[in-house]
């Protein structure tokens, strides 16, 4: 379709330097005479000063410098692919784990009644490299992990690595934490950085940060309050993009069943390192990555709407009901079913606290008389209001 | 294929560099006709080369690289404009075929012209420019302080060189070198 344009461009470039053959001349003339715009373009390009002007102006893009940037980005793409590969593996491990719990609860009436869903995790768990699982709801106080010789402290709703004693140095040891639906948990990492983890979130981190970099991986949602250390940049990997931090507070929402992966900066400065580009985010800016087409967008927002969950509050500003229901489902551990697809796009502005019961939240939403939510045990059915 | 000696050529970093040197500024100029912010323009064009690099194994099977580059850049530009919530009227003009034709031909003509011209020795280049200004051989000779015969000879030599460089479709050359 564009072949003709390339052909015309070549004829024009030729004609600027060498005489054209009669046939070529005719071809070019035919094209020129077919519209005023074409004739104007032709006249423009036949003027040496226009050519020079455009050519010199195009030098502002600094090809040599940009080539160096391209090389750097190209190498990062390779790293990202390795991470995605790893994530596939991690998902497999979690599945195996769920299966294991299911087997061990075979005789348990309650878990049978709940069915095979996320509620199989009664509470937040730590996954150790050797496959051991620690139930953080049950084991409070000092936890000694015999296999990797790590000692951590588990308070109410918070596990602390900042006083971690590593008895024996055996390279970098990673732990994984999994917070199920309906729960929240906090992790204080070995550098003192505090991470609030929202429901249905997985994070992998080293028990002690060694080397020149602090690196964690997350699927789900976390609010990071990072301890400043200019010598050791803090990197959060989402699998879609990386977030580089010096010392700051920000929220990452990176669920694989959401349409968008979002990072919002509350304080300080972070750099988003994506497959193709880097962006420095300012406070109250939202970086929104569209998973469906790998595009992204930066917008100014009120960061408090995105971080309220860590204080047990939920704030939505013109948010589609589909994503609101995703949040409610994770927070109250409910399954969500839309009976009418067309209501998914309806937007709501609302505010609620987590200690409100799910029934209260449903009543508020039904009160708008745009949708009707019906609760049936673990299931919320959403219909159009008739 | 039947005797099994077909060697698949790997599109490597040198090929990427060649393409980058050849097209980077033109693609930026092309993107500028859609997106006004230079930083965004550079991002879009970088993306385009990265996509090419990531998909290099799929593309080498016969897609016209030049078309690929321009098409990718234009699509990214239009996507960005849509996200910026431009007014509908503006976007319909910028998405039109006429707009594409105009920008593409303008950018490509300039690229091809300079690609050819830069290979010439400085004096010959100057002769070509003066001829473009409409000067005759005699006037050019006077201006450059050389004989009319020299002007004539240099022009002839230049034409010969340019015919060969313009004649070879560079993008096709790259394509063949990728699958040879």
Write the SSE topology:
The complex is a heterodimer of chains A (386) and B (180).
Chain A: H1 3-17, H2 22-33, H3 36-45, H4 48-58, H5 63-104, H6 109-114, E1 125-127, E2 133-135, E3 141-145, E4 150-155, E5 158-166, E6 174-179, E7 185-188, E8 194-197, E9 201-206, E10 214-225, E11 234-237, E12 241-245, E13 249-254, E14 260-267, E15 270-274, E16 278-281, E17 285-290, E18 295-300, H7 304-307, E19 313-320, H8 321-332, E20 335-338, E21 347-353, H9 358-367, E22 371-376, E23 379-384
Parallel strand pairs in A: 5-7, 10-11, 20-23
Antiparallel strand pairs in A: 1-2, 1-6, 3-4, 4-5, 6-9, 7-8, 8-10, 9-10, 10-13, 11-12, 12-15, 13-14, 14-17, 15-16, 17-18, 19-21, 22-23
Chain B: H1 13-32, H2 38-54, H3 56-59, H4 65-83, H5 88-94, H6 97-117, H7 122-132, H8 137-144, H9 148-167, H10 170-179
Helix pairs in contact in B: 1-2, 1-6, 2-4, 8-9
Task: Describe the protein.
The complex is a heterodimer of chains A (386) and B (180). Chain A is built from nine helices and 23 strands. Chain A is of the alpha+beta class. Chain A has an 18-stranded mixed sheet that branches. In chain A, strands 20-23-22 form a three-stranded mixed sheet. Mean pLDDT of chain A is 80; it is low at 79-83 and 95-121. Chain B has 180 residues and is mainly α. In chain B, helix 1 crosses helix 6 and helix 8 (137-144) packs across helix 9 (148-167). Chain B is elongated and about 60 Å long. The two termini of chain B are 12 Å apart.
For the structure shown, list the relevant keywords.
heterodimer, A: 386 residues, alpha+beta, 18-stranded mixed β-sheet, three-stranded mixed β-sheet, 9 helices, 32% helix, extended, B: 180 residues, mainly alpha, 10 helices, elongated, disordered C terminus
Quick take:
The complex is a heterodimer of chains A (386) and B (180). By secondary structure, chain A is an alpha+beta fold.
* Straight-line distance between termini of chain A: 50 Å
Distance between the termini of chain B: 12 Å
Helix content of chain A: 25-40%
Largest interface: A-B, 43 and 51 residues
- Sheet-strand content of chain B, in percent, reads under 5%
Please bin the fraction of helical residues of chain B. over 70%
Rounded to the nearest angstrom, the radius of gyration of chain B is 21 Å
Sheet with the most strands of chain B?
none
Largest sheet of chain A: 18 strands, mixed
Coarse structural class of chain A: alpha+beta
Figure out the total of helices of chain B: 10
Number of helices of chain A: 9
Low-pLDDT windows of residues of chain B: 1-8, 167-180
Overall mean pLDDT of chain A stands at: 80
């Amino acid at each position: 379709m564009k072949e003709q344009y390339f052909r015309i461009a070549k004829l024009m470039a030729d004609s600027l330097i060498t005489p054209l053959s009669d046939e070529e001349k005719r071809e070019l003339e035919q094209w020129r005479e077919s519209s005023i715009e074409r004739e104007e373009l032709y006249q423009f390009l036949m003027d040496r000063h226009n050519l020079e002007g455009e050519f010199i102006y195009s030098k502002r893009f600094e090809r040599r410098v940009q080539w160096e940037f391209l090389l750097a980005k190209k190498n990062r793409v390779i790293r990202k692919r390795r991470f995605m590969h790893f994530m596939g593996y991690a998902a497999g491990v979690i599945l195996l784990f769920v299966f294991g719990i299911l087997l061990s609860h075979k005789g348990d009436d309650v878990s049978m009644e709940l069915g095979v869903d996320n509620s199989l995790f009664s509470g937040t768990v730590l996954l150790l490299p050797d496959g051991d699982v620690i139930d953080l709801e049950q084991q409070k106080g000092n936890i000694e992990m015999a296999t990797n010789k790590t000692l951590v402290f588990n308070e109410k709703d918070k596990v602390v690595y900042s006083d971690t004693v590593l008895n024996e140095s055996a390279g970098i040891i990673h732990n994984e934490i999994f917070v199920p639906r309906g729960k929240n948990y906090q992790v204080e990492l070995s550098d003192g950085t505090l991470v609030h983890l929202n429901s249905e979130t997985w994070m992998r981190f080293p028990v002690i940060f060694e080397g020149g970099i602090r690196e964690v991986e997350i699927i789900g949602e976390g609010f990071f309050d990072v301890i400043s250390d200019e010598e050791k940049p803090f990197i959060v990997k989402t699998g879609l993009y990386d977030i580089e931090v010096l010392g700051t507070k920000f929220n990452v929402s990176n669920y694989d069943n959401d349409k968008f992966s979002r990072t919002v900066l509350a304080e300080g400065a972070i750099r988003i390192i994506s497959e193709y580009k880097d962006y420095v985010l300012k406070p109250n800016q939202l970086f929104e990555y569209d998973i469906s087409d790998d595009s992204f967008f930066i917008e100014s927002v009120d960061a408090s709407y995105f971080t309220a969950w860590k204080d047990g509050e939920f704030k939505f500003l013109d948010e589609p009901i589909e994503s609101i229901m995703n949040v409610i489902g994770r927070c109250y551990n409910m399954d969500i079913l839309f009976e009418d697809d067309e209501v998914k796009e309806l937007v709501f502005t609302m505010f609620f606290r987590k200690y409100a019961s799910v029934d209260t939240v449903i009543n508020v939403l039904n009160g708008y008389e745009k949708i009707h939510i019906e609760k049936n045990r673990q299931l919320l059915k959403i219909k159009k209001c008739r | 294929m039947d005797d099994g000696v077909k060697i698949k050529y790997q599109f490597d970093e040198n090929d990427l560099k060649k393409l980058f040197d050849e097209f980077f500024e033109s693609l930026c100029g092309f993107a500028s006709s859609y997106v006004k912010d230079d930083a965004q323009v550079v991002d879009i064009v970088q993306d385009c080369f990265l996509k090419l690099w990531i998909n290099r194994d799929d593309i080498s099977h016969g897609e016209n690289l030049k078309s690929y580059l321009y098409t990718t850049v234009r699509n990214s530009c239009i996507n960005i404009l849509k996200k910026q919530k431009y007014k509908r009227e503006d976007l319909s003009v910028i998405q039109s075929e006429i707009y594409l034709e105009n920008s593409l031909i303008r950018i490509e003509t300039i690229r091809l012209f300079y690609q050819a011209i830069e290979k010439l020795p400085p004096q010959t280049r100057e002769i070509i420019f003066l001829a473009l200004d409409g000067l005759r051989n005699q006037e050019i000779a006077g201006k450059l302080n050389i004989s009319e015969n020299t002007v004539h000879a240099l022009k002839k030599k230049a034409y010969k060189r340019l015919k060969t460089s313009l004649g070879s479709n560079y993008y096709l050359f790259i394509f063949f070198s990728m699958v040879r």
